[in-house]
Amino acid sequence: MKTFLRLLKLTTPFKWWITLAALLGFATIGSSIGLLATSAYIISRAALRPSIAVLQVAIVGVRFFGLSRGVFRYLERYVSHQVTFRLLARLRVWFYRRLEPLAPARLMRYHSGDLLARIVADIDSLEHFYVRVMAPLVVAGLVTVLMCVLLASFDLRLAVITLIFLLLAGMGIPLLTRLLSRGMGQRLMTTRAKLGAAQIDGIQGGADLLTTGRADRHQQYVQQLSQELVTLQNRMARITGLYTALSGLLTNWAALAMLLLAIPLVSTGKLDGVYLAVLVLAVMASFEAVLPLPQTWQHLEGSLTAAERLFEIVDAEPVVPDPSTPSPRPQDFGLVVKNLSFRYNAQDPLALKGISFNLPQGRRLAVMGPSGAGKSTLVNLLLRFWEYQTGEIKLGGHDLRAYQPEDVRQLIGVVSQRTHLFNGTIKQNLLLARPESTDEEVIRAARQAQIHGFIQTLPQGYDTWIGEQGLRLSGGERQRLAIARALLKNAPILILDEPTANLDPLVEREVMQTISALMQNRTTLLITHRPVGLAAADEILVLQAGHIVEQGQYHQLLQAKGVYWQMENLQNQLMKDEADIGRQS
Ligand code: ADP
Q1: 538 inside domain
Q2: How far is the CA of 474 from the centre of ligand 1 (A)?
Q3: Which residue's CA is minimally distant from atom 12 of ligand 1?
Q4: 327-361 per-position pLDDT tens digit
Q5: Listed residue (355, 364, 307) closest to 524, CA to CA
Q6: 293-314 and 135-152 are packed helices; what angle lies between their axes, rounded to 10 degrees?
Q7: Which of the pair, 99 or 301, is modelled with greater confidence?
Q8: Could you tell me if residue 563 is inside a domain?
Q9: Which protein residues touch ligand 1 with a CB less than 6 Å away?
Q10: Residue 134 belongs to what domain range?
Q11: Residue 106 domain-assigned?
Q12: C-alpha span between 24 and 26 (Å, rounded)
């Protein structure tokens, strides 16, 4: 019930449109009833061969209802589609607005296919909530009242018997079908979502599935899910068939009951015989209003499940709340971290333990450590993706938590190992950093990132389409685009999160040179798991299992002959071995 009311509340901006559409729906069925009733009247009356003048009003009535039925149906469809599409557009924006602040921390436990299903399919199924749930209920209610009033003016028993049959068709059959299809709406929805998720997995991870020989198993899984879906749809179709048959039966029984009740009334002279056919046909026509109701319950269940899945996300609190009175933009872009500890979940071990460092404005700090040491965690905290619990991070002298997450991210340019490029042109991808940049600025950034030459060799230059996730570009080109993006953003703080991790040594060296241009005059945090190219850093932190095991300037660490020194020796040895192997082959 709570979900139903919340859904209803979402439609409030359109309440007048919805009322209009429901009234038009009522007018359409009213016209159908009027058409059949006046037609029956003309035929019955004409059998008595009256003068044409007697039939005149009824003839006009037939013409009117015949035309108005079509016009009202058209208007009703037009208005309800208008409402539906506007409602859907509103719902999509509403959902996306709530979804965005939840990324990435709160969304980690959702599968991307599942999220996609919620954004697309669940919102689409809410379309039924209005067109197939609310409107038919209102129309059926109004038509039932109309019929009861109309029939009661002839004889109360006629009204009562019609009411019973209408209730049976409008509520009895839906209850029966609901019993038969219990939980199926939900199962249909979840199976469909699972199938979508599995298909996306299959497409995105196609290459991995093939190389690990798991493609067959995945295919079987997809087949099993689609089989399940087909079985469910079959059962649903059978139930639909049953209620269509039952509704037809009830309509005819209602007509029969009317005849049985009305014929004695005609014989005893309580009812003019001309109205016999009028009443029977009007009752038959009124069933048009209750026939969609069994489906209404099915759609109601589907809409409520979809709404619950959406509300579950919408109700999640962002991990990082906005401060009540955010600090203004800092004047100084130095970072001070003191005794910082952090764990992702209450039951998890600490990912960072008592980290402290000082990164003054314009200086370079390298954080080096093996995989799992907590380097990305530090970046996640600085970018305000997660909220830290103990210790402090200060930016420009103020607590990082006092800034709005959005403002902090504005100040930080990131080049990471996984640069996400969107399915668009090169220029669109670059402009993401700062949409208002001019063409000259874009070209200047690309020149500095040494990618301008390459872009010019492409058939459409900056307007070349780079495919989903930039798959048409090499690793080095993608990283250069990421650097150009960071240059364009021109943020005072720079985080380089293993920007060359996926590149071969030659390209790595070239990209590193480009990056040095980017580091000029920026407060830079360089994250890496290898002791390569760190001589340029003002200070190096060596991180292991969440704490700092060594800290100092490059030459100090070498002199100390500690962990850093050992790692660099190991790295040099590895590089030498690789070079030897290269020379021999
Ligand atoms: P690095 O970047 O140095 O490879 P991370 O910062 O990614 O290391 O990871 C540090 C620790 O935090 C690891 O033990 C990892 O399992 C854990 N961790 C990382 N991300 C999450 C997450 N989203 N939820 C829970 N634990 C996480």
Answers
A1: no
A2: 28
A3: 351
A4: 888 888 999 999 999 999 889 999 999 999 999 99
A5: 364
A6: 150
A7: 99
A8: no
A9: 108, 344, 348, 351, 369, 371-377
A10: 2-314
A11: yes
A12: 5
584 versus 169: the higher-pLDDT residue is: 169
Structure tokens at 198: 């599995």
Write the pLDDT tens digit of every residue in 228-282. Answer: 999 999 998 998 888 889 999 999 999 999 999 999 999 998 989 999 999 999 9
CA distance 530 to 367: 10
Domain membership of residue 52 (yes or no) is: yes
CB contact set of 147 (below 8 Å; sequence gap of 6+) = 33, 159, 162, 163, 166, 282, 283, 286
Q: Residue 550 is encoded by which pair of tokens?
A: 């060594």
For ligand 1, atom 24, which residue shows the shortest CA distance?
Answer: 344
374 CA to middle of ligand 1, Å?
Answer: 6
By CB atoms closer than 10 A (0-12, 13-18, 19+), residue 411 is middle
Residue having the nearest C-alpha atom to atom 17 of ligand 1: 351
Pocket perturbation via mutation, ligand 1, pick of 352, 377, 498, 527 by most ligand atoms within 8 A of CB: 377
Lowest mean pLDDT across 118-122, 232-236, 495-499 = 118-122
Written as six digits, the tokens of 243 are 């209620």
* pLDDT tier at 469, thresholds 50, 70, 90: low
C-alpha distances out from residue 315 to 40, 99, 103, 312, 325, Å: 56, 10, 14, 5, 23
Nearest residue by C-alpha to atom 13 in ligand 1 = 372
Mutate to test the pocket of ligand 1, among 106, 108, 345, 376 (most ligand atoms within 8 A of CB): 376
Total domains in the fold of the chain: 1
Q: Which of 319, 342, 344 maximizes ligand 1 atoms within 8 Å of its Cβ, making it the mutation to test the pocket?
A: 344
* Gap from CA of 351 to ligand 1 centroid (Å): 6
**CATH number of residue 14's parent domain:** 1.20.1560.10
